[in-house]
Amino acid sequence: MKTYLDLHREFSAGIEAELEAALARTGGSAPAVRDAVGRLLRHQPMKYPLAVLPLLVHGAETGAPAPALPLSAVHILWWTSACYLDDLADGQGATLPAGLGLHEALLAAIVAGHLLPLEVLESPGVPAAARPALTAELVACGTTAAEGQMEDIRKNTGEASRSTVLAAYRGKSGAPFSMITAMASILSGAKDERTARWREFGDVFGILWQIFNDYEDLASGRHEDLRNGTVTYALACALEEASPGERRRILDLHAGARTSAGARSDLAGLLLGPSVLAYCEKDLGEFRDTAYRLLDELGGDEAHVSVLRGLVDQTSRLRP
Asked: Does domain 4-315 have CATH number 1.10.600.10?
C-alpha cells in the first residue's frame, strides 16, 4: 500500500520547484530577503514531509494531487517560520541559520510565514476565483495559531490540565493543519460543507500530530520540551492521574528539568511509564476514531483516502 512517504518521493521535485518559484519572485527587488529565507529553509528542514497533506486532500477530492503543489509550498513556508519562532520563544533551542544574525533570521521567519505564502497564492497555478477564500484561511490561521502560542507561553504549570493543553494545541497545531486541509478542499472546488469537514479533520489531525511529536521528543532522549519547560499533554495526563504528593513531585521535576539532566531523566521516565501512557492513549484513541470517522464520511478517491488513514494510524502510536 502506498504511504505518504511514497507520495512525497513522487512529488518532492514539484514541491521544491514551487518553493523556488516563490523565492524567485522576491529576487529582483529583495535579493537579501531571498537569501535569508533560503538560508532559513535550509536551516529548518521538516523532519516529516507532511507537506503532502494538501496533495492527499486534493487527491481525495479529485483523484489528482498535483494541482495542490502550491499549497505544499505554503505548508512548508508556514511551518518553517512557526517552528523557528517557537524555538526563539522557548529561549533554549534556537540556533542561527548560517550567515544570518538574530534580527535577520527573525525577519526571514516573518517573511517566510506571512508574506511568501501570499505570494504563492498569487501564482499562476492558483485559480483567481479561489484566491480570496484561500487568503482568508491563511489569515484566520495566523490569528488562531498566535493565540494558541500565547496560551502556551503564559501557561501556569501548576494549573495545567488536559483541557487547557488541548486549547493551546488546537491553536498552535490544529489551526495550521485545518488551514491546509481546508485550502486543498477549496482549491479542488469542493462544496462548503465538505470543506468544513476537511477543516475539522485537519484540526483533529493537528492535535494527534502534536501529541505524537511530544512523545517522540521524550522517547528520543532529546527532551527539548523538558528543557524548555513546555507544558505538554503527557505532563497534563501525569498531573491529572497523580496523587497530591506525586503531583508535587512531578511539578518539582518539571521545574528542575530546565537545567538538570537528572530531573529530565526522572520526569521522562515517569511520562513514558505505562500508567501515564495508558491514560494519554485513551484520549488519543478518541481523536484517532474521530479522524477515521471524518475520512469515512468524506470518502472520495480511495487511493488517497487510504494513505490518509495510514497517516492517522501512524500518528496515533505513542509506544516508544
From this structure: yes
